């Protein structure tokens, strides 16, 4: 049994805020500043360059990778941290495409995050081999998995609607036709109970700044299935993925297993903050988090729909079909979200009309959900969003 009151007490939350945006950026673990301070003063400050060995900086990407592996159902020793998620998408896709050299189609869906599609477009141009990025509607992915497809590249949870793909089913179908899968777990890791190993995923990537609470700019992770780990060729052949980085050889030789997906110097300070977040994750299991997240999203939908007929549910109604977020469509959604933020309920807006709310049991409880729903009801019923100050768009929405 997870003590969610105990995990909640380990996060800093400003007074008067109900934070429903952990699906974009998780809050600060209270232990992180001291951990960062120690990484700076005791490690960087005192150990200087010897910190790479004495403080274990060089081993951190794989060590923290193992702690994330537990949360996504990956085998120990097959997840490594580094770079940003966009980079990890590129790496995974490039390696995957090479494994199916006689095919040219990358299949994705319109629910994918744009950066994944942009990275695929860039890679296609760089390769210059005539690959095609085929983007279909989310519900049409399965029927489009044909023997033309080289790689199925899918984000499991739709960033707008929260719609959850069936990873095991789509992976099975992809393998039946000889395709390789790349799963983006940005809205999955720390949000739903996923089993990349059981599903047979070939590659999986994700970020650590959303549900995992690693902080802004925290490093991404990549998983390569054990059966591919020593065969996948890393497209970004940086020195820290080399078999012997400190031999400083003139030519690249890929390192063993997942180590080859490392590129360059790891973000040591960012990983110190992430470590504090993972200490909290060690207090629970994804099954416990998922069960409670379902309770919270069900309660939220129930309360908001009862009070706000002008909001249209954009997320699947069946909790088994959605991640850990709830979205509503509303034409003036941007202004509505700004009015909510002004009243302490932080969600976010995704164009053209999505009001998005993330649910994170580590620091949100039923009382928070009831309180947030009451504020949303007031803002919507009294049209409090209909004021000029809520209608000017900021750079980040
Ligand atoms: C599904 C998904 N993929 C990729 C990205 C891009 O990640 P990054 O900015 O870390 O490269 C995001 C960012 O939110 C995302 O949600």
From TrEMBL:
<dbReference type="InterPro" id="IPR015422">
    <property type="entry name" value="PyrdxlP-dep_Trfase_small"/>
</dbReference>
<feature type="modified residue" description="N6-(pyridoxal phosphate)lysine">
    <location>
        <position position="210"/>
    </location>
</feature>
<dbReference type="GO" id="GO:0019805">
    <property type="term" value="P:quinolinate biosynthetic process"/>
</dbReference>
<dbReference type="InterPro" id="IPR015424">
    <property type="entry name" value="PyrdxlP-dep_Trfase"/>
</dbReference>
<comment type="function">
    <text>Catalyzes the cleavage of L-kynurenine (L-Kyn) and L-3-hydroxykynurenine (L-3OHKyn) into anthranilic acid (AA) and 3-hydroxyanthranilic acid (3-OHAA), respectively.</text>
</comment>
<dbReference type="GO" id="GO:0030429">
    <property type="term" value="F:kynureninase activity"/>
</dbReference>
<feature type="binding site">
    <location>
        <position position="155"/>
    </location>
    <ligand>
        <name>pyridoxal 5'-phosphate</name>
    </ligand>
</feature>
<feature type="binding site">
    <location>
        <begin position="113"/>
        <end position="116"/>
    </location>
    <ligand>
        <name>pyridoxal 5'-phosphate</name>
    </ligand>
</feature>
<feature type="binding site">
    <location>
        <position position="85"/>
    </location>
    <ligand>
        <name>pyridoxal 5'-phosphate</name>
    </ligand>
</feature>
<feature type="binding site">
    <location>
        <position position="239"/>
    </location>
    <ligand>
        <name>pyridoxal 5'-phosphate</name>
    </ligand>
</feature>
<feature type="binding site">
    <location>
        <position position="184"/>
    </location>
    <ligand>
        <name>pyridoxal 5'-phosphate</name>
    </ligand>
</feature>
<protein>
    <recommendedName>
        <fullName>Kynureninase</fullName>
        <ecNumber>3.7.1.3</ecNumber>
    </recommendedName>
</protein>
<comment type="subunit">
    <text>Homodimer.</text>
</comment>
<dbReference type="GO" id="GO:0009435">
    <property type="term" value="P:NAD+ biosynthetic process"/>
</dbReference>
<dbReference type="InterPro" id="IPR010111">
    <property type="entry name" value="Kynureninase"/>
</dbReference>
<feature type="binding site">
    <location>
        <position position="86"/>
    </location>
    <ligand>
        <name>pyridoxal 5'-phosphate</name>
    </ligand>
</feature>
<keyword id="KW-0378">Hydrolase</keyword>
<keyword id="KW-0662">Pyridine nucleotide biosynthesis</keyword>
<keyword id="KW-0663">Pyridoxal phosphate</keyword>
<feature type="binding site">
    <location>
        <position position="187"/>
    </location>
    <ligand>
        <name>pyridoxal 5'-phosphate</name>
    </ligand>
</feature>
<comment type="similarity">
    <text>Belongs to the kynureninase family.</text>
</comment>
<feature type="binding site">
    <location>
        <position position="265"/>
    </location>
    <ligand>
        <name>pyridoxal 5'-phosphate</name>
    </ligand>
</feature>
<comment type="pathway">
    <text>Cofactor biosynthesis; NAD(+) biosynthesis; quinolinate from L-kynurenine: step 2/3.</text>
</comment>
<comment type="pathway">
    <text>Amino-acid degradation; L-kynurenine degradation; L-alanine and anthranilate from L-kynurenine: step 1/1.</text>
</comment>
<dbReference type="GO" id="GO:0005737">
    <property type="term" value="C:cytoplasm"/>
</dbReference>
<dbReference type="GO" id="GO:0019441">
    <property type="term" value="P:L-tryptophan catabolic process to kynurenine"/>
</dbReference>
<feature type="binding site">
    <location>
        <position position="209"/>
    </location>
    <ligand>
        <name>pyridoxal 5'-phosphate</name>
    </ligand>
</feature>
<dbReference type="GO" id="GO:0097053">
    <property type="term" value="P:L-kynurenine catabolic process"/>
</dbReference>
<dbReference type="InterPro" id="IPR015421">
    <property type="entry name" value="PyrdxlP-dep_Trfase_major"/>
</dbReference>
<dbReference type="Pfam" id="PF22580">
    <property type="entry name" value="KYNU_C"/>
</dbReference>
<dbReference type="GO" id="GO:0030170">
    <property type="term" value="F:pyridoxal phosphate binding"/>
</dbReference>
<dbReference type="GO" id="GO:0043420">
    <property type="term" value="P:anthranilate metabolic process"/>
</dbReference>
């Amino acid at each position: 049994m997870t003590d969610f009151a105990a995990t909640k007490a380990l996060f800093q939350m400003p007074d008067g805020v109900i934070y429903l945006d952990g699906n974009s950026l998780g809050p600060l673990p209270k232990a992180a500043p001291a951990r960062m301070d120690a990484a700076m003063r005791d490690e960087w400050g005192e150990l200087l360059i010897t910190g790479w060995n004495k403080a274990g900086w060089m081993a951190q990407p794989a060590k923290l990778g193992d702690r994330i592996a537990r949360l996504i159902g990956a085998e120990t020793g097959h997840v490594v941290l580094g770079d940003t998620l966009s980079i990890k998408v590129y790496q995974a896709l490039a390696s995957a495409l090479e494994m199916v050299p006689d095919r040219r189609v990358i299949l994705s869906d319109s629910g994918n995050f744009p950066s994944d599609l942009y990275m695929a477009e860039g890679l296609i141009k760089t390769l210059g081999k005539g690959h095609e990025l085929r983007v279909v509607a989310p519900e049409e992915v399965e029927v489009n998995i044909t023997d033309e497809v080289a790689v199925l590249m899918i984000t499991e949870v739709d960033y707008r609607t929260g719609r959850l793909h069936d990873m095991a089913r789509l992976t099975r179908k992809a393998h039946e036709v000889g395709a390789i899968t790349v799963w983006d777990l940005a809205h999955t890791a720390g949000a739903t109970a996923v089993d990349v190993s059981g599903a047979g995923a070939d590659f999986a990537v994700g970020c650590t700044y959303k549900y995992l609470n690693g902080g802004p700019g925290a490093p991404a992770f990549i998983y390569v299935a054990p059966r591919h780990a020593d065969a996948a060729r890393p497209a970004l052949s940086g020195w820290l993925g080399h078999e012997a980085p400190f031999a400083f050889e003139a030519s690249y030789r890929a390192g063993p297993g997942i180590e080859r997906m490392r590129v360059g110097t790891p973000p040591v300070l960012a990983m110190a903050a992430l470590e504090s977040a993972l200490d909290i994750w060690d207090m629970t299991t994804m099954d416990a988090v998922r069960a409670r997240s379902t309770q919270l999203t069900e309660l939220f939908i129930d309360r908001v729909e009862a009070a706000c007929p002008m909001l249209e549910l954009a997320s699947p109604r069946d909790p088994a079909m959605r991640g850990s977020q709830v979205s509503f469509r509303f034409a003036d959604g941007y202004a509505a979200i700004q009015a909510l933020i002004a009243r302490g309920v932080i969600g976010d807006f995704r164009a053209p009309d999505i009001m998005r709310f993330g649910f994170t049991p580590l620091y949100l409880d039923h009382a928070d959900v009831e309180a947030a729903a009451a504020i949303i009801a007031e803002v919507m019923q009294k049209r409090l969003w209909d004021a000029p100050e809520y209608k000017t768009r900021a750079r980040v929405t």
